[in-house]
Design brief:
349 residues; alpha/beta; 51% helix; globular
């Protein structure tokens, strides 16, 4: 038999609670031409037994057992063992929708300039109940700019050309729990990135997920990556503390002073002006940029309102000019409620 079209790579560590659902979601894909490389990273629960049963049922599944080394080493080993032209990532607590692999292969075949491709996600909780839908940026030039603010691709949704990740040297351990963000940043030098504007994966948000358990470490690593991207995009030095403040705004975390809010806002506006000045966006890109930038300014308005109602409302109006969708009654009510709460709890001058 020849190599499969797609290799699905999934690290597993103590994933017995949701592992069967994750595996079944891959085996139930409409695209059948894949192999499934699973790295059992020293699990101490029943994960190995679950994987053994599935391996006996489906010869596309290849399970490798190792002592615990962490998700980066496990993902890299899986990617190095992959034989497919494309590598699709998967986590042991998420659910891929049936058309995911087929839609991503179709897109990559139609867009040879794209080397890394994600999708939108729907959050689910520990019981599988649906929560918010995360509509990631979709267009390559907007994503290149958006990466200055955040990781714009959800790692478990990504399908990559194997040649691209091999050229980049796979995930880097030194980026710790932001190794996916680091990979997207490095990928900009060799390819373009995109997201399919469809929900093709259910992303589980629960206290035992990696993103919860290692949030602080991930944020420190991500701030360093964002700092490098921002300085490269602007062609100028930027204080690290200002980048940290910007990331706090984007992640809806409190800042210590109005000055920190203003510094973060100044950097945000510099990035917006630089994008408009250098990218010459077409109308569709301009709309996506405006929606994203307006939403980030809304976060800035919430941060500013903690110290000044006038300042918060001023930034909110600025955000709504970019993204008129923020003027919908529901968003306005939610935003005004958040501003009022922050004003009631803002520190004394």
């Amino acid at each position: 038999m020849g190599s499969p079209r797609v290799s699905v790579v999934m690290p597993v560590y103590n994933g017995e609670e949701y592992l069967a659902e994750a595996v079944e979601s891959i085996l139930g894909q409409t695209l059948r031409d894949f192999d499934f490389v699973i790295i059992n990273d020293g699990s101490t629960d029943g994960s190995a037994d679950i994987l053994r049963r599935y391996q006996q049922k489906d010869d596309r599944i290849r399970v490798y057992h190792q002592e615990n080394q962490g998700w980066v080493a496990s993902a890299n080993r899986g990617c190095q063992l992959a034989q497919g032209e494309y590598i699709a990532r998967m986590d042991h607590d998420d659910v891929s929708l049936p058309e995911r692999l087929a839609r991503q292969v179709w897109y990559l075949e139609a867009h040879p300039e794209i080397g890394v491709l994600g999708t939108w996600i729907q959050e689910i909780d520990s019981s599988g109940l649906t929560r918010d839908t995360r509509r990631k940026l979709t267009m390559p030039r907007v994503i290149e700019w958006g990466l200055c603010f955040e990781s714009c691709l959800a790692n478990p949704t990504v399908m990559m050309r194997r040649a691209v990740i091999e050229r980049l040297g796979f995930y880097r351990a030194e980026a710790t729990y932001a190794a996916d963000y680091d990979l997207w940043a490095r990928a900009l030098s060799v390819t373009q990135l995109a997201n399919i504007p469809e929900v093709l994966l259910q992303y589980r948000v629960w206290p035992e997920s990696l993103s919860y358990r290692h949030l602080e470490t991930a944020q420190r690593s991500a701030a360093k990556i964002a700092h490098s991207l921002i300085e490269s995009f602007l062609g100028a030095e930027v204080p690290m503390e200002t980048v940290v403040g910007l990331r706090k705004v984007v992640m809806a975390q409190p800042l210590a002073s109005l000055q920190e809010v203003e510094d973060a806002g100044s950097l945000m506006r510099r990035l917006c002006r630089a994008y408009v000045a250098t990218s010459c966006p077409n109308p569709e890109e301009a709309r996506e940029y405006a929606r994203f930038a307006g939403t980030k300014l809304l976060y800035l308005a919430n941060a500013a309102s903690r110290f000044s109602l006038r300042k918060g409302l001023s930034v909110y109006i600025e955000a709504a000019r970019l993204n008129p969708g923020l003027l919908s009654p529901m968003v306005v009510a939610r935003g005004l409620t958040a501003i009022a709460r922050r004003c009631l709890t803002r520190p004394s001058p």
